[in-house]
Specification:
This protein has about 120 residues and is of the alpha+beta class. It has one domain. It is built from five helices and five strands; from the N terminus they run ββββαααααβ.
């Protein structure tokens, strides 16, 4: 199991031509600026760094825009990088996921949040 995160633009309508019929209609769509994936096995490490809800449950803490993730993700990433051995104890024993993988994931996600601060945050757990 894994976590999928998305930074998306606002919804808009585009023309759609179906293959099953002869008429045109519109459909709602969103541009995706970023998508990332990380294993649930790293949830305890993210929790130890204080950013589990920001990654896994942003909807439950009221986060809707990427700009709202910049500060907490930057702080969590700084914690992780400041004490790698403290966080490596949370590496999953089954080998699915690692400290390095979580640091890379957060750094990339943070860069995307900075690049698209008005993007809508969406997760799939």
């Amino acid at each position: 199991m894994s976590l999928d995160v998305y930074l998306q633009g606002d919804e808009y309508e585009t023309a759609c031509r179906c293959h099953d019929c002869d008429h045109e209609h519109t459909r709602k769509t969103r541009d995706t600026y970023y998508d990332g994936n990380i294993t649930h096995n790293l949830g305890s490490m993210a929790d130890a760094a204080g950013i589990y809800p920001h990654l896994w449950r942003p909807d439950e803490i009221g986060v809707t825009r990427a700009s709202e993730l910049i500060e907490p993700l930057a702080a969590g990433l700084a914690k992780l990088r400041s004490e790698p051995e403290h966080y490596r104890v949370h590496n999953p024993p089954n080998g699915w996921g690692s400290y390095e993988g979580l640091v890379r994931f957060i750094a990339e996600y943070l860069d995307a949040c900075r690049a698209h601060p008005e993007a809508t945050v969406r997760v799939s757990r």
